[in-house]
Design a protein that fits this description.
SH3 type barrels, 2 domains, 256 residues, 7% helix, binds magnesium ion, Fumarylacetoacetate hydrolase, domain 2
Length: 256
């Protein structure tokens, strides 16, 4: 099943099931409760896609690909490096990423994002994937020059709109074996496979859930491969993970 969240021309926000022909069957509520399909069918062309989920927290993993840790000349971590992005960092497919005036180096980070489907507390690794609604593309946008200044990474990674997600959530993929790629203006920048993750999705869910309850809609962004670099105003950045479509955003001048 592939889920989308969208804005209709009448201003209503709805969830739906995205079919292969790009038609959308509208859901009565959300995918996080008993799913009730309505009779109504719309299509991708008629709606504006939003971030496919509203989250209470996005738990992000740093240095989770061997090659990315080597790029930063950091030792392979023995336990996951964790930080959190706020709900205000959510961004939608085709939504603008504003280049902060206080930064001079703005990076993309292609990441597989896990969307939690059910409340999840102290789960074992073997049961962890039962709590997942599905997976989507994420871009862990980072003001790289502000990162060393802030030992907690919070400032550099938490500007409004610094977590584009989408275009849809799919439960039809194997999170442990997906090609992952990023492009800027059509030029390939990152290329790897989630099989290179140091800490796998099931381990991460179990590990995080032992510290904090994961709520329906919460996101775990699993880290980025090597090949990060800067973006400029006017650039178009794409994240593409096998089976999860293409997440596209443009860099724009920050509004005052
Ligand atoms: Mg990251």
């Amino acid at each position: 099943m592939r889920y989308v969240r969208f804005l209709r021309s009448n201003g209503e926000i709805k969830y739906g099931i995205l079919h292969k022909d790009n038609s959308i069957q509208v859901l009565l509520g959300t995918p996080f409760e008993k799913r009730v399909l309505t009779e109504e069918i719309t299509s991708l062309e008629k709606v504006t896609l939003l971030s496919p989920v509203e989250f209470s927290k996005a738990v992000c993993i740093g240095l989770n690909y061997r090659d990315h840790a080597e790029e930063f000349k950091k030792p392979i971590p023995k336990s996951p490096v964790i930080f959190i992005k706020p709900s205000t960092s959510a961004n939608r497919p085709n939504g603008p990423i504003y280049y902060p005036e206080m930064s001079h180096r703005l990076d993309y980070e292609a990441e597989l994002a896990v969307v939690i489907g059910e409340r999840c507390h102290k789960v074992e690794e073997k049961d962890a994937l039962d709590y997942v609604l599905g997976y989507t593309n994420a871009n862990d946008v980072t003001a790289r020059d502000l990162q060393p200044v802030d030992g907690q990474w919070t400032l550099s990674k938490c500007f409004d709109g610094f977590l584009p997600l989408g275009p849809y959530i799919s439960d039809e993929v194997d999170p442990d074996n997906l090609k992952i790629e990023s492009r800027v203006n059509g030029v390939k920048k990152q290329e790897s496979n989630t099989s290179n993750l140091i800490f796998k999705v099931s381990y991460l869910i179990s590990y995080i859930s032992k510290a904090m309850t994961l709520l329906p809609g919460d996101v775990i962004s699993t880290g980025t491969p090597d090949g990060i670099s800067g973006m400029q105003i006017g650039d178009e950045v794409e994240i593409e993970i096998e089976g999860l479509g293409i997440l596209k955003n443009k860099i724009e001048k920050e509004k005052r």
